[in-house]
Amino acid sequence: MKLILASQSPRRLELLHQIGVRPEVHPADIDETPLSDETPEDYVNRLARHKAEAVAQHYSGALVIGSDTSVVVDNQILGKPESRDHFFTMFKRLSGAQHQVMTAVAITDGQQTLSEVVITQVSFYPVNEREIERYWLSGEPQDKAGGYGIQGLGALFVKEIQGSYSAVVGLPLAETGKILDKFGFSAWAQGAVE
To answer: Is the pTM of the predicted complex or chain greater than 0.85?
Structure first.
């Protein structure tokens, strides 16, 4: 069965490779504007499902994985930083505090779509302005939800996580595997275990 990842995220692809799954990559092109009165959890779930379903329209008989990740503080989504000033404002909110990372995974065969949202609590150490500046200059925050990557230099700020590490990176692997199983696609059969 052909498997497609509806995302251009290299992190999601690496995570799938980690469990022996090697999909084709065909990014979805959808409107990611939040709806009025939409909760962050509903938002990431809707986007993951729409990404998978948009790509599945072009690939009959394939399984398509869509995903979306948001960093959430006080029920407000922190997107990707739009500028240095925006990044500083976001990172000061994260510094010394707890936030949530909400990641949805959706898989469709073109007939039915199954999805799940995984919420992980992440706590940051206090971060000073010099550290924020150095991190911005590293280039890592620019394309990351919430302005940081836990799998990179951003790990230096993380005090604790409660939940799924892979979901914070961009794809909850255990939940992805369980949904794939429901479609009859086993990561175990793909050579993940020698």
So the answer is: yes
